[in-house]
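Troubleshooting log. The previous structure file for this entry was overwritten by mistake, so regenerating from the original sequence record. Sequence copied from the archived sheet and checked twice against the printout by T.R.
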Amino acid sequence: MLKHPDHVTVAVTDPAAAIGFFVLLGFEHHKVMAVGVCLRNQPMTFHDRKLVFLEGTEGITVELVERK
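Regenerated output below.
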């Protein structure tokens, strides 16, 4: 049973809008990273994805993963 989550990942199509939403909820923008991912159907093609980490109260981190 999940009792004290400390990290949640959410896939979003518009990271800027999602950041704005979570900031309104009291989260603070912590860090942004870009990663290259290889999709299963396109094994030789890499796509850049943005990861955004927001810190909330009580040690909760929200990770936003850009989904194109």
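The beta strands are 7-12, 28-38, 46-55, 61-66. Archived copy saved in two places this time.
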